[in-house]
Target: Metalloregulator ArsR/SmtB family transcription factor
Amino acid sequence: MSDHRAKVALFDALTESAKALANGRRAELVDVLLQGERSVEDLATEIHQSVANTSQHLQRLLRAGLVRTRRDGNRIHYSLASPLVGTLWQTMRQVAEQHVVDLGRLAEDYVGDRGALATMTRDQLRARLREGDVVVLDVRPEPEYSAGHIPGAISVPIGALEARLGQIPTGADVVAYCRGPYCVYADEAVRALSAAGRSAARLEDGFPEWAALRLPVEREAAVPS
Model:
Protein backbone atom coordinates (compact mmCIF):
# COMPACT_ATOMS: atom_id res chain seq x y z
CA MET A 1 0.00 0.00 0.00
CA SER A 2 1.32 3.42 -0.88
CA ASP A 3 2.42 5.82 1.84
CA HIS A 4 -0.33 8.38 2.51
CA ARG A 5 2.32 10.85 3.71
CA ALA A 6 3.85 10.77 0.24
CA LYS A 7 0.44 11.49 -1.26
CA VAL A 8 -0.03 14.43 1.10
CA ALA A 9 3.36 15.80 0.11
CA LEU A 10 2.55 15.36 -3.56
CA PHE A 11 -0.78 17.13 -3.38
CA ASP A 12 0.71 19.93 -1.29
CA ALA A 13 3.33 20.41 -4.01
CA LEU A 14 0.66 20.37 -6.72
CA THR A 15 -1.04 23.34 -5.06
CA GLU A 16 2.14 25.42 -4.74
CA SER A 17 1.46 27.38 -7.92
CA ALA A 18 -2.07 28.21 -6.80
CA LYS A 19 -0.84 29.26 -3.35
CA ALA A 20 1.73 31.57 -4.92
CA LEU A 21 -1.01 33.22 -6.99
CA ALA A 22 -3.40 33.48 -4.03
CA ASN A 23 -2.58 37.17 -3.58
CA GLY A 24 -3.97 40.07 -5.57
CA ARG A 25 -0.65 41.87 -6.00
CA ARG A 26 1.09 38.73 -7.24
CA ALA A 27 -1.78 38.14 -9.66
CA GLU A 28 -1.28 41.73 -10.90
CA LEU A 29 2.41 41.00 -11.44
CA VAL A 30 1.62 37.91 -13.50
CA ASP A 31 -0.94 39.92 -15.48
CA VAL A 32 1.73 42.52 -16.34
CA LEU A 33 4.38 39.89 -17.07
CA LEU A 34 1.96 38.22 -19.45
CA GLN A 35 2.76 41.20 -21.72
CA GLY A 36 6.51 40.58 -21.57
CA GLU A 37 9.65 40.94 -19.47
CA ARG A 38 9.87 43.89 -17.05
CA SER A 39 12.32 45.16 -14.45
CA VAL A 40 11.53 45.19 -10.74
CA GLU A 41 11.31 48.97 -10.79
CA ASP A 42 8.86 48.97 -13.71
CA LEU A 43 6.73 46.32 -12.03
CA ALA A 44 6.63 48.28 -8.78
CA THR A 45 5.34 51.32 -10.66
CA GLU A 46 2.72 49.25 -12.50
CA ILE A 47 1.21 47.74 -9.34
CA HIS A 48 1.67 50.89 -7.21
CA GLN A 49 3.87 49.19 -4.62
CA SER A 50 7.32 49.94 -3.26
CA VAL A 51 10.28 48.22 -4.88
CA ALA A 52 10.85 46.32 -1.62
CA ASN A 53 7.28 44.99 -1.45
CA THR A 54 7.30 44.15 -5.15
CA SER A 55 10.57 42.25 -4.75
CA GLN A 56 9.07 40.18 -1.93
CA HIS A 57 6.11 39.21 -4.10
CA LEU A 58 8.41 38.36 -7.01
CA GLN A 59 10.56 36.19 -4.77
CA ARG A 60 7.45 34.24 -3.76
CA LEU A 61 6.59 33.70 -7.42
CA LEU A 62 10.21 32.72 -8.10
CA ARG A 63 10.22 30.12 -5.33
CA ALA A 64 7.07 28.60 -6.82
CA GLY A 65 8.78 28.40 -10.21
CA LEU A 66 6.30 30.75 -11.88
CA VAL A 67 8.82 33.41 -12.96
CA ARG A 68 12.46 33.56 -13.97
CA THR A 69 15.06 36.31 -13.79
CA ARG A 70 17.66 37.94 -15.98
CA ARG A 71 20.32 40.33 -14.75
CA ASP A 72 21.29 43.36 -16.84
CA GLY A 73 23.97 45.26 -14.97
CA ASN A 74 22.43 46.30 -11.67
CA ARG A 75 18.87 45.67 -12.80
CA ILE A 76 16.93 42.44 -12.41
CA HIS A 77 14.33 41.64 -15.06
CA TYR A 78 11.50 39.17 -14.54
CA SER A 79 9.48 37.15 -17.01
CA LEU A 80 6.99 34.29 -16.80
CA ALA A 81 8.65 30.87 -16.55
CA SER A 82 6.53 29.48 -19.40
CA PRO A 83 3.32 30.20 -21.34
CA LEU A 84 1.55 27.78 -18.98
CA VAL A 85 1.83 30.35 -16.20
CA GLY A 86 -0.17 32.80 -18.28
CA THR A 87 -2.69 30.07 -19.05
CA LEU A 88 -3.00 29.32 -15.32
CA TRP A 89 -3.75 32.96 -14.53
CA GLN A 90 -6.25 33.28 -17.37
CA THR A 91 -7.99 30.08 -16.26
CA MET A 92 -8.20 31.32 -12.67
CA ARG A 93 -9.70 34.53 -13.97
CA GLN A 94 -12.28 32.69 -16.05
CA VAL A 95 -13.29 30.50 -13.11
CA ALA A 96 -13.75 33.60 -10.97
CA GLU A 97 -15.85 35.23 -13.69
CA GLN A 98 -18.14 32.19 -13.69
CA HIS A 99 -18.38 31.48 -9.98
CA VAL A 100 -17.37 34.43 -7.76
CA VAL A 101 -20.39 36.33 -6.51
CA ASP A 102 -20.39 40.06 -7.31
CA LEU A 103 -17.30 39.86 -9.53
CA GLY A 104 -19.24 41.58 -12.31
CA ARG A 105 -20.06 44.49 -10.01
CA LEU A 106 -16.46 44.73 -8.83
CA ALA A 107 -15.26 44.73 -12.44
CA GLU A 108 -17.71 47.47 -13.40
CA ASP A 109 -16.63 49.53 -10.39
CA TYR A 110 -13.11 49.44 -11.83
CA VAL A 111 -13.50 49.54 -15.62
CA GLY A 112 -16.74 51.52 -15.65
CA ASP A 113 -19.73 51.04 -17.92
CA ARG A 114 -18.53 49.87 -21.32
CA GLY A 115 -22.01 49.89 -22.79
CA ALA A 116 -21.40 53.15 -24.63
CA LEU A 117 -18.00 52.09 -26.00
CA ALA A 118 -17.80 50.61 -29.48
CA THR A 119 -16.07 47.21 -29.49
CA MET A 120 -14.42 45.36 -32.35
CA THR A 121 -13.96 41.59 -32.33
CA ARG A 122 -10.70 39.93 -33.28
CA ASP A 123 -12.25 38.53 -36.46
CA GLN A 124 -13.49 41.97 -37.44
CA LEU A 125 -10.07 43.47 -36.83
CA ARG A 126 -8.34 40.78 -38.88
CA ALA A 127 -10.68 41.54 -41.79
CA ARG A 128 -10.07 45.28 -41.48
CA LEU A 129 -6.31 44.72 -41.34
CA ARG A 130 -6.50 42.77 -44.59
CA GLU A 131 -8.43 45.66 -46.14
CA GLY A 132 -5.91 48.14 -44.74
CA ASP A 133 -8.59 50.64 -43.75
CA VAL A 134 -8.05 50.79 -39.98
CA VAL A 135 -5.52 52.39 -37.63
CA VAL A 136 -4.54 50.16 -34.70
CA LEU A 137 -3.22 51.75 -31.51
CA ASP A 138 -1.31 49.82 -28.86
CA VAL A 139 -1.83 51.97 -25.77
CA ARG A 140 0.25 49.84 -23.40
CA PRO A 141 3.66 51.02 -22.10
CA GLU A 142 6.39 50.92 -24.75
CA PRO A 143 8.29 47.92 -23.26
CA GLU A 144 5.16 45.81 -23.67
CA TYR A 145 4.73 46.94 -27.26
CA SER A 146 8.36 46.02 -27.98
CA ALA A 147 7.88 42.57 -26.45
CA GLY A 148 5.03 41.84 -28.85
CA HIS A 149 2.20 43.63 -30.63
CA ILE A 150 -0.43 43.23 -33.32
CA PRO A 151 1.21 43.68 -36.75
CA GLY A 152 0.95 47.24 -37.98
CA ALA A 153 -0.07 48.62 -34.60
CA ILE A 154 1.27 52.04 -33.62
CA SER A 155 2.68 52.43 -30.12
CA VAL A 156 0.92 55.32 -28.38
CA PRO A 157 1.06 54.79 -24.59
CA ILE A 158 -2.11 56.09 -23.00
CA GLY A 159 -0.23 58.85 -21.19
CA ALA A 160 1.04 60.19 -24.51
CA LEU A 161 -2.23 59.98 -26.44
CA GLU A 162 -3.34 63.58 -25.97
CA ALA A 163 0.03 64.98 -27.05
CA ARG A 164 0.20 62.70 -30.10
CA LEU A 165 -3.41 62.96 -31.21
CA GLY A 166 -2.37 65.01 -34.22
CA GLN A 167 -0.15 62.15 -35.44
CA ILE A 168 -3.11 59.77 -35.78
CA PRO A 169 -4.54 59.89 -39.32
CA THR A 170 -7.89 61.65 -39.51
CA GLY A 171 -10.84 60.13 -41.29
CA ALA A 172 -9.81 56.56 -40.46
CA ASP A 173 -11.42 54.18 -37.99
CA VAL A 174 -9.21 53.63 -34.96
CA VAL A 175 -9.03 50.49 -32.82
CA ALA A 176 -7.23 50.62 -29.47
CA TYR A 177 -6.10 47.64 -27.43
CA CYS A 178 -4.21 47.03 -24.21
CA ARG A 179 -3.59 44.18 -21.75
CA GLY A 180 -6.88 42.33 -21.55
CA PRO A 181 -10.46 42.51 -20.28
CA TYR A 182 -9.54 44.29 -17.03
CA CYS A 183 -7.22 46.87 -18.58
CA VAL A 184 -8.73 50.35 -18.87
CA TYR A 185 -6.11 51.95 -21.13
CA ALA A 186 -8.04 51.10 -24.31
CA ASP A 187 -11.27 52.39 -22.75
CA GLU A 188 -9.59 55.69 -21.90
CA ALA A 189 -8.17 55.93 -25.42
CA VAL A 190 -11.55 55.33 -27.07
CA ARG A 191 -13.23 57.92 -24.87
CA ALA A 192 -10.50 60.48 -25.62
CA LEU A 193 -10.59 59.79 -29.36
CA SER A 194 -14.39 59.92 -29.46
CA ALA A 195 -14.35 63.25 -27.59
CA ALA A 196 -11.96 64.55 -30.28
CA GLY A 197 -14.43 63.57 -33.00
CA ARG A 198 -12.62 60.41 -34.11
CA SER A 199 -14.28 57.09 -34.94
CA ALA A 200 -12.83 54.73 -32.33
CA ALA A 201 -13.46 51.30 -30.86
CA ARG A 202 -11.73 49.05 -28.35
CA LEU A 203 -10.60 45.56 -29.24
CA GLU A 204 -12.34 42.79 -27.32
CA ASP A 205 -10.05 41.46 -24.58
CA GLY A 206 -6.47 42.48 -25.39
CA PHE A 207 -3.06 41.49 -26.69
CA PRO A 208 -2.56 38.33 -24.55
CA GLU A 209 -5.79 36.84 -25.88
CA TRP A 210 -4.78 37.72 -29.44
CA ALA A 211 -1.38 36.04 -28.97
CA ALA A 212 -2.88 33.01 -27.18
CA LEU A 213 -4.92 32.25 -30.31
CA ARG A 214 -1.66 32.20 -32.30
CA LEU A 215 -2.72 35.18 -34.37
CA PRO A 216 0.11 37.15 -36.05
CA VAL A 217 2.43 39.00 -33.68
CA GLU A 218 5.33 41.35 -34.36
CA ARG A 219 8.25 42.03 -32.02
CA GLU A 220 10.79 44.81 -32.01
CA ALA A 221 14.26 43.75 -33.16
CA ALA A 222 16.79 43.63 -30.33
CA VAL A 223 19.31 46.47 -30.35
CA PRO A 224 22.90 45.11 -30.43
CA SER A 225 24.81 45.90 -27.23
Remarks:
- The domain at 4-89 is CATH 1.10.10.10 (Arc Repressor Mutant, subunit A).
- The mean pLDDT is 93.
